[in-house]
Amino acid sequence: MRRPLAAVAAGLVLVAGAGAAACSSSSPSHPSGTTAPSTSTPAPSDSNPPGDIPDTQVFVPWSPPGGGFTVKVPEGWSRTTQGSATVFTDKFNSVRVERIHAVTASTVNSVKATAIPAISAASTRFSLVKVTTVQRAGGRAVMAEYHADSPPDQVTGKRVALDVQRYVFYKAGKGEAVLTLSGAVGADNVDPWRVVTDSFRWS
To answer: Where is the stretch described as Disordered (predicted)?
Structure first.
């Protein structure tokens, strides 16, 4: 798999790893004849571990309560509800699915004018990469790519940098379906994300 970016980097990023190299230096001998242990630079406490989705990951069809559309999501990931959205997560990766009432389709300009400011205000270290129109197997979508930090870990309070892609699909009479895919910065998830977004179908 090949990492696409420019595409989104939304940073959320829903996140990639960096380790610190150990540095050692010789120490004078102790009276006992032993030498003092070498010192090393510890890895940064907030270094990001890799978050690649394995090639063996299985995807299964999912529809929201009441139907309206179907999209494939990773099998076995944790599922939670956040208001009107359903979120599937595994480590630093997530797929967020939400249906929104709308009578007209979003455009690149409308997403820049309304959605992006709202996302930026609710995010930490937000950085927009681009907003563009893309074609997927199930139809056209407006895609916003950006970087942002994850919410703080409930235990450690630490955040990780994320790459985020947000897709908005529209159909008259059905409104909008928003798919937001995030993963650690540096994770190579372009193929899994394409599986998800190409699987979207209105029903």
So the answer is: 22-55
